[in-house]
Write a structure and sequence with these properties.
The chain folds into three domains: about 90 residues, Uridine Diphospho-n-acetylenolpyruvylglucosamine Reductase, domain 2 (2-Layer Sandwich), CATH 3.30.43; about 120 residues, Uridine Diphospho-n-acetylenolpyruvylglucosamine Reductase, domain 3 (2-Layer Sandwich); about 120 residues, Uridine Diphospho-n-acetylenolpyruvylglucosamine Reductase, domain 1 (Alpha-Beta Complex). The strands form seven sheets. The protein has a five-stranded antiparallel β-sheet with strand order 6-7-15-11-12. Strands 17-20-19-18-22 form a five-stranded antiparallel β-sheet. By secondary structure, it is α+β, with helices and mostly antiparallel strands. Helix 1 crosses helix 2 and helix 7 packs antiparallel against helix 8. The chain is globular. Helix content is about 30%, strand content about 25%. The C terminus is likely disordered.
């Protein structure tokens, strides 16, 4: 059965599979550049924005019965390739409720943006999420990747995570059953639909002041107002990916409209019309240059998803205004191979 036939079967399952009406927000051939913080990438075969958990369950069950691939996408920390995404992409932006559930507990659905949750906690006099004020991800995606900064990460604050398994059953996992490591959470197969956090009561004014200071520091050192996917590479043990990239002379380096940020070298920004191919070519070039100069193999922190475009090529490299060389082929490196392998396998 072709993907097109599976999509038709999926839509029929939604239409005929019960008394409820099918989801109202179904978007065929939806550009992912509208739904990622990088503002680049190809189309999803279908994008669906469920109104609530019940609608999400029907979407997941129908996709399972139709044998159609399904991906839940928050939009940050990802680069969607130009060939787009096969099957159904689910966006949980309407699962956006927050509830203060006790003197030290706050709960949030998966589509809540992390800065909004941090502000809600501050208003409730709950401290512990101040570090999240500048992280552009959703609760769901941030739980999956154990999002964090130098000031902290989510894992120690999580009390429980609620998942929807692919059969539609909701399961709540308590903290003791969860296993986290740097930028990763070991979770069962399924979709995160919400999480509960245990925080510390504190004066709201003090929490707000701390968040204001942290946000000011991030604005001064990171390109928060430019389209990006966040930090591209993981920090090597005992070093900083940003420091290595800057020391390699790559701050401001461009391929097409994809540029290494002048503000923080571990960010690639979209200057307006960058294609995914430009961004991935720049990632490979950075990896080769750092490995050649310092013998350090950088590992990706961003996720590369979707299909590679077979017929398109990245834009020709451009020279920096300050006289830097344009990207050449260079020697091979593990990061180049990893990026290419990820593109082929997704």
């Amino acid at each position: 059965m072709t993907v097109r036939e599976k999509i038709q079967r999926f839509l029929k399952e939604l239409r005929d599979g019960g008394t409820a009406a099918p989801p109202a927000d179904i978007r065929p051939h939806e550009p992912m550049s509208r739904h990622t913080t990088m503002k680049a990438g190809g189309e999803a075969d279908l994008l669906i924005v469920p109104q609530d958990v019940d609608e999400l369950r029907r979407v997941i069950q129908a996709a399972h019965r139709a044998g159609l691939p399904l991906m839940v996408l928050g939009g940050s920390n990802v680069i969607v390739q130009e060939g787009g995404i096969t099957g159904v992409v689910v966006k949980l932006s309407r699962l956006n409720r927050i509830r203060v559930a006790g003197p030290d507990r706050i709960e949030a659905e998966a589509g809540v943006l992390l800065p909004r949750l941090a502000r809600a906690a501050a208003r409730a006099g709950l401290s512990g999420l101040e570090f999240a004020i500048g992280i552009p991800g959703t609760v769901g995606g941030s739980v999956v990747m154990n999002a964090g900064t130098r000031e902290g990460e989510l894992a120690p604050r999580i009390a429980s995570v609620t998942l929807m398994r692919w059969d539609g059953e909701l399961v709540t996992l308590e903290r003791e059953a969860l296993h986290f490591r740097y930028r990763h959470a070991e979770l069962p197969q399924g979709c995160v639909v919400g999480a509960a956090f245990v925080l510390q009561p504190a004066p709201a004014a003090g929490i707000e002041a701390t968040m204001s200071r942290m946000l000011g520091e991030r604005n001064a050192t990171q390109p928060l107002h430019s389209p990006s996917a966040g930090c591209v590479f993981r920090n090597p043990q005992g070093d900083s990916a940003g420091r290595l990239i800057e020391a390699a002379g790559l701050k401001g380096y461009r391929i097409g409209d994809a540029q290494v940020s002048e503000r923080h070298a571990n960010f690639i920004i979209n200057r307006g019309r960058a294609r995914a191919g430009d961004i991935l070519a720049l990632i490979r070039h950075i990896g080769r240059r750092v490995e050649r100069q310092f013998g350090v193999t950088l590992e990706l922190e961003v996720k590369i998803i979707g299909r590679a475009a077979q017929s398109r090529r990245a834009a020709r490299p451009s020279r920096r205004a300050s006289g830097g060389r344009a990207a050449g082929r260079g020697s091979g490196s593990r990061i180049g191979a990893v990026a290419a392998q990820t593109m082929r396998s997704r």
